[in-house]
Specification:
The chain is an alpha+beta fold and 873 residues long. It has 29 helices and 35 strands. The strands form nine sheets. It has a nine-stranded mixed sheet with strand order 15-14-13-12-16-17-18-11-19. Strands 1-34-35-33-32-31 form a six-stranded mixed sheet, sandwiched between helices. The longest helix has 22 residues. The chain is elongated, with a radius of gyration of 31 Å.
Length: 873
């Protein structure tokens, strides 16, 4: 292993070396006030700032209208952007006066008014057990809270961030009906009739009944609210926290401060839901209100569209690599862990964590490689390197691992790929997995981490991966899928059954052209037919429906499919029996059944149903939702000789793989006797490499294997691919040379001399034996690359084993340079005393102990001139 360091590492590279610290709020319990991370109000004014020719904060220059159109172009969403100061409309998409139930976006309005009227105080708390049932005489509402905590008391700020229904139902109880009407009128909204009962008032404050609004009305209301937030700091911070870590976290954009709220509601009983996002942010120096209304969706989907708008407005430089925080053992409740080599047993207790040493703590933070077992005798064990956090929760232990994104891709591919997966489909899946991870890195922010290790995100198999998996990840390093200048939303399914499904049929907000689906897939059917059967007792289904809070006939006499997608998959079911018939979405039905009976009970939504006595018989095909990349089809395409590019083009038509939206993926360029892998221009680097390779061979002979040089596009990707610190300029493993980006090399002495050094490592390593000490391999390269000159005239004594350790694991760039100088001196002494032919023999067979002893005793200085003669001899 060879490493070449930078002489003067920049502060950015030092940060890259040591990595970013875990955000302080991740270390806190959710029962405390989370650390407010600045991510948003400067964003909307950025769009307006372009119109005003204010210097942009990023490379892209675009208008508010262009950004909003780009964000919503493939969706049925309505969007509106308004200047807070002037009330002027800056942009709109699909403007409409249609009115719909607002859901939770009303909560900030009622909270601000209640605080102003002292109906509640900022510190007033409400205890929430999550469950909330309201019956208004016409309908029973099951309004269980979805925030991560239960059995906790919320004050105003956190209640708003987590959109706690229990808190706002009790807030409604404190507001007289006439005052509720006055609050709505104050914000330009009106409802009829005025609620008369407690239940009607609660549903009004929750935005579920008694009022409908248009996007324009919500924009007016939130502009009014924005002008008043200086007098309501708890509301302002609650809206910011909602985006930072709460229910609106899908709208978050790093580096921006956004304040906003989501809402989900339906206009008819058991109808399809719609979603809202309303909030404020700064674009440049001007504050704006943004409102997104999404038919056939939910608030989380609307928030994601707001996020897309913010990204389109600023077009931030895409990250090809980053750190990801994953919850491990995410589908289990842990009470005990064994951590090796820490040598500690970690036990859950009601008041915190208990170590085997007896020390009580709330959280344990570790760095490095550890093996974690879920309790004594438990078969599940995870081995991984990274930053570990073991935290106490009310219901058990939480285990978080922060690791490089490329290591995450290896673990996910290791978990998802078949044991006999061909290389082309491995690479296609690696790009898909990386795309999902980078696009969804904050998916679980509301729960205190980014991703989970279950199939909800991507199943992980941490630990040693087979070489083919590591190769697939290395050869696609940093590549993700892009479409229309933005990173694609990627989905994959185990087996599509021969026909891909449209993403909009599963996720209503997904209308991207590359996810349109509805095209035949002959490949997966050649792999296997993927047929399945299920039999479920009707009485058991009744129990499952009751547990979901659904109002369905009981007992059930029949279930039939009443609507199918264009591909034939079930979309809507009708349940009949004693009582009024009920309609259920097929996806909700499948998830409810699988959650209750096992996740492989119903393998997909593509099935037929029939009654057999008192049971429902189902015959289906395909495994999974059928959207995006079909893993069985990708396997078959690769087996038939298709490339990873062809596989991705088949399943995501129009999307391109690359490091950036330009589609600058990896390409191979032939040098004279060597190969360059790069994502950028190659001409100059090839010429420098040809000269360096020719000189290296003239100094040490021809190789057995031709080298490959991989030019990484970013320092972070260099760190993740090689495991080296950011101050290293290059690293060689066998015949594979990894380089820092061109800009980094140019600031640190150029490329030709660097390549000469690394090519010499390739030649030396091909002749080195297993017993050859590292100091000889490194020292020999140093003196060959520097024409026999060994640097400083000062000799620093260092034992051989200590020197090898210093070379393998230097504390910093200075320590690395010193170790290489000492290695060069020792190699120079060998060459001068014994000649190059003998040193080549030492390289193959190891340095004899008597030679080492003589070397240790010899303190004489060998001049560069003397050594040059020894090399030339």
């Amino acid at each position: 292993m060879a490493r070449t360091e930078q002489r003067n590492p920049t502060s950015r590279e030092k940060r890259a070396r040591y990595g970013a610290p875990v955000d302080p709020w991740l270390r806190q319990s959710f029962t405390t006030t989370p650390h407010p991370i600045f991510i948003g109000i400067c964003y909307r004014s950025l769009l307006l700032s372009v119109l005003l020719l204010w210097p942009p904060l990023t490379l892209a220059q675009t208008t508010a209208q262009t950004a909003l159109t780009s964000a919503l172009q493939s969706t049925p969403a309505v969007g509106l952007l308004v200047d807070v100061k002037t009330g002027r409309q800056l942009a709109s998409v699909k403007a409409t006066n249609e009115r719909h139930a607002p859901g939770s976006i009303l909560k900030p309005l009622f909270l601000a008014a209640a605080l102003e009227q002292h109906e509640v105080l900022p510190q007033t708390t409400v205890f929430c057990r999550r469950n909330l049932h309201i019956s208004d005489g016409t309908r029973d509402w099951n309004l269980a809270c979805t925030h991560p905590q239960s059995d906790v008391a919320f004050a105003a700020q956190e209640a708003l961030a987590y959109s706690c229904n229990r808190y706002f139902a009790e807030l409604a109880d404190r507001i007289p009906p006439a005052q509720g009407a006055a609050i709505l009128a104050h914000y330009g909204l009106a409802q009829t009739p005025i609620p008369q009962s407690r239940e009607q008032k609660e549903l009004l404050v929750l935005g579920l009944a008694g009022i409908t609004v248009s996007p324009a009305q919500i924009a007016v209301a939130y502009r009014k609210l924005a002008l008043e937030l200086d007098q309501a700091p708890a509301v302002r911070q609650g809206l910011r926290d909602s985006v930072t870590y709460g229910m609106a976290h899908n709208a978050a954009v790093p580096g921006m401060e956004i304040a906003g709220k989501t809402g989900t509601a339906s206009d008819v009983i058991q109808g399809r839901s719609h979603g809202w996002f309303a909030g404020t942010a700064y674009l440049g120096h001007e504050e704006v209100v943004i409102v997104i209304y999404l038919p056939l969706g939910n608030g989380a989907d609307a928030a994601r569209l707001a996020h897309d708008f913010f990204l389109a407005a600023t077009a931030p430089a895409p990250q090809s690599a980053r750190e990801l925080t994953v919850e491990l053992f995410s589908t289990r409740t842990l009470k005990s862990l064994t951590v090796t080599p820490l040598g500690q047993q970690v036990e859950w207790a009601p008041d915190g964590l208990r170590l085997s040493s007896g020390t009580p703590v709330k959280q344990i933070s570790l760095g490095g490689s550890f093996r974690v077992r879920a309790g004594p005798g438990d078969p599940q064990e995870i081995s991984a390197a990274g930053r570990w956090t073991i935290a106490w929760r009310r219901d058990g232990l939480r285990v978080l691992l922060t690791l490089p994104s490329e290591d995450y891709v290896i673990a996910a591919l290791n978990g998802e790929a078949a044991p006999d997966e061909p290389m082309a489909s491995l690479k296609a899946m690696a790009i898909s997995i990386r795309t999902f991870a980078m696009e969804n890195a904050s998916r679980h922010n509301a729960e205190g981490f980014g991703l989970c290790d279950s199939t909800h995100c991507q199943a992980l198999r941490l630990g040693k991966a087979r070489p083919e998996v590591e190769r697939a990840v290395r050869e696609t390093a940093g590549e993700t899928l892009w479409f229309g200048g933005r990173r694609a939303h990627v989905y994959y399914t185990q087996h599509c059954g021969g026909m891909s499904e449209a993403a909009a049929g599963v996720w209503p907000a997904e209308h991207a052209a590359y996810l349109a689906g509805n095209h035949a897939d002959p490949y997966c059917l050649r792999r296997s037919p993927a047929e399945w059967r299920a039999r479920i007792d009707l009485a058991r289904l009744s129990t499952i429906f009751r547990a979901q809070g659904w109002q369905t006939p009981s007992p059930i006499s029949a279930i039939r499919v009443t609507r199918r997608s264009a591909t034939g998959r079930a979309e809507l079911l009708e349940v009949t029996g004693r009582g009024a018939p009920a309609e259920l979405s097929a996806s909700s039905f499948r998830f409810a059944v699988d959650r209750a009976l096992g996740w492989n009970q119903m393998r997909s939504d593509w099935y037929t149903v029939s009654l057999s006595g008192v049971a429902l018989e189902m015959k289906g095909r395909g495994y999974g939702h059928g959207v995006g990349l079909c893993q069985a089809g990708a396997w078959q395409m690769a087996a038939e000789g298709h490339s990873d590019t062809e596989i991705l083009s088949f399943y995501f038509p129009g999307a391109v793989a690359g490091i950036t939206p330009a589609g600058d993926g990896w390409r191979s360029v032939a040098g004279v006797g060597w190969t360059l892998l790069t994502t950028g221009p190659a001409g100059g680097l090839v010429a420098e490499g040809n000269a360096a390779w020719a000189k290296a061979q003239s100094l040490f002979g021809s190789p057995a294997d031709a080298p490959t040089v991989e030019e990484l596009p970013s320092t972070e990707l260099f760190r993740q691919t090689t495991g080296e610190p950011g101050w290293m300029l290059a690293s060689t493993r066998g015949s594979h040379v990894f380089l820092q980006p061109a800009a980094v090399r140019q600031n640190n002495g150029g490329t030709e001399a660097l390549l000469l050094h690394e090519f010499l490592h390739v030649l030396v390593e091909q002749q080195a034996g297993e017993k050859t000490p590292l100091w000889l391999r490194e020292g020999l390269v140093e003196i060959l690359a520097n024409s026999g000159k060994t640097g400083s005239e000062f000799w620093v004594a260092m034992p051989a084993k200590e020197l090898d350790a210093a070379l393998a694991h230097p504390a910093d760039a200075a320590a690395s340079r010193q170790a290489h100088q000492v290695a060069a001196r020792m190699a120079a002494l060998l060459c001068t005393r014994y000649g190059m032919a003998a040193v080549r023999d030492f390289l193959r067979n190891g340095v004899p102990i008597e030679v080492l002893n003589r070397l240790r005793k010899n303190s004489s200085f060998v001049s560069g001139h003397d050594f040059s003669r020894a090399v030339n001899d």
